[in-house]
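User: ok so my PI wants both of these folded by tonight, can you help

Assistant: No problem, let's get them done. Here's the first:
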Amino acid sequence: MSRYSALALAVKALGGNRTWPRVWRDPEPKPSYDVVIIGGGGHGLASAYYLAREHGITNVAVLEKSWLGGGNTGRNTTIVRSNYMIDGNTRFYEKSLQLWEGLSRELNYNVMYSPRGQLNLSHSKAQFDAAARRGNIMRLNGIDSKAMLRDEVRRFAPYLDFSDQARFPIYGALWQGRAGTVRHDAVAWGYARAAARCGVDIIQQCEVTGIVTKNGRVRGVETTRGAITANTVAIVVAGDSSLLARMAGIRLPVESHVLQAFVTEAVKPLVDTVITFGAGHFYISQSDKGGLVFGGDLDGYNSYARRGNLAVAGDVMAEARALLPHLSRLRVLRHWGGTVDMTMDGSPIIAAMPVKGLFLNGGWCYGGFKATPASGWCFAHLLATGEPHPLISRFTLERFERGFQLDEKGAGPEPGHH
């Protein structure tokens, strides 16, 4: 770094963000667009970017009711992976991980992808056999995986509880070395800047209050900043999907639940990979600032609130202590909740809706953040062509009518999005 650039960086760092240039435009909404995307999180911004870059459709508005990345994109534990096994999910999540690997270069924006790897722990022979089967399916699909027995796991992660007093003895693990973490808000900022440079209008503080339809076709949206007409409208709003779909008279097969995450005080480097606990719904990694970031299962009630309850917090802390007893002296600095759409089979919906011109990208359950690049890439194809990309051909709404579910809940045990 040159002396001048170092000085300029110091001045900007000490001066707050008052003198920073905008990295995307802040336009007034136009009365009409070719495509309106409701939701300015990672999936919505990625969809807009790939619409412009891959399909040349730039007359696009992304409408965000608050600020970019203020929803689930900025409220998750940042884990990315592709250790899935069901046909329909395996190649999709691998496509996403491949896009993650080159995303900083693609966007010319550092999203801080860190391929630190992931250990899915097994605590019995039956669990290990199931994990090995998943690993074999991954390898048959060209995805990296490795089965580890107890001694190898211990050499790799000696800070776990391998004592004779361990409540859940570790039998082995499934390892994916390309898995890791990504800086969540950098993803939103990087996609926003790239989309804006392609001509996309990103409009914050613009809440959609109604979806306008006529004769079975979408005609536009009503917003707090006026009416906008469009023949293509996309709903990409995470935990609020059912509310937006209801504006068009559609009832979705999803429930909205709160999912919590936690961060401890900063400590010296300890957990150098992503770890999931096979005996319970628990996952943990360490941030670049030193805090341990972890989470667990859903709160057990339907809610649109972004706050959790102490019952689940207690369960998560107990799992943390069972896996890493020495964490018991650490203080938890903060915790938060995000609202997630839970489908009945644990897999998303990326499909056209019964109203012509209306499309949905939602129902991501635990796994939305890791899917961001592939979700946007495939959804843009659907919006541009009207036909689903082969990678999302099974993520239909009709599968719930036919009873053909993509039940991946047992195959991808670690959530990546809250």
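One down. Here's the second:
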Amino acid sequence: MMKKIVLIGKMNEHLKNTYEYLRKYFYVQLCAEGAQKALGMVKVIEPDIIVISLEGFSSLEQVIFAGLQKDCFRIPVITFGTSIEKQLFRIYYNDGQFENYEGVIDPAAAFSAVCKKLGLNPDAAVSVVPPDDNRKKVLVVDDNASTLRSIKSMLEEKYNVTLANSGMKAMTSIGKNRPDVILLDYEMPVCDGRQTLEMIRADEDLSSIPVIFLTSVNDKEHIHAVIKLLPAGYLLKPAVPERLIETIEKALEGKSCV
């Protein structure tokens, strides 16, 4: 099974290039949107290792380090940064969980560091996954961490799965890595499923992506409201693996499941 990495940092070309390289050989979840998002994603993914680019970090990111040390102390953390950048977080490098590599993050250095920390043979790691991942991309959007974790476990062997815990984060994710199908929670705070679907359909480049609603409410009036939005399909929570995959496959074929 592929090792799991959460990659944290400020979005720039160095981070983007490293993400694109690492995801050829590992399951990588990129988080470039703040401390609380990063900590929440770590809890959802339960990675084997965390990689952090310190480029652009300030003392405000202390909360990430403190949270990882407090709640994820068993997960090794590799950071990439200059001696000045590391100095901001120096107190966290004393217990062995955190290890810094001097300089700006880059694909080759990150790959080598991850393999070393996890005790992997680099040649063996390269052979785990073919260079081109031709699996269909599924974006799962839900504000509930346990739901994200559950659906990810159902789908990750068959699909390339990306997670988002809000409608706005989903839109950011879609812009960076266009999915083939979207599983969208209907009941979310701030920006709910209906509003997120409207944003997707308002963008001409995204409007053709099939969207499957997930809902935990099964009364007639609620289901009618969901169907009225003409999604590619809808499923009641908790999702059943066989039914979930069947609905995704039909949506990918352009068939409606409503």
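The first helix runs from residue 13 to 22. The two ends are 35 Å apart (CA to CA). Good luck tonight!
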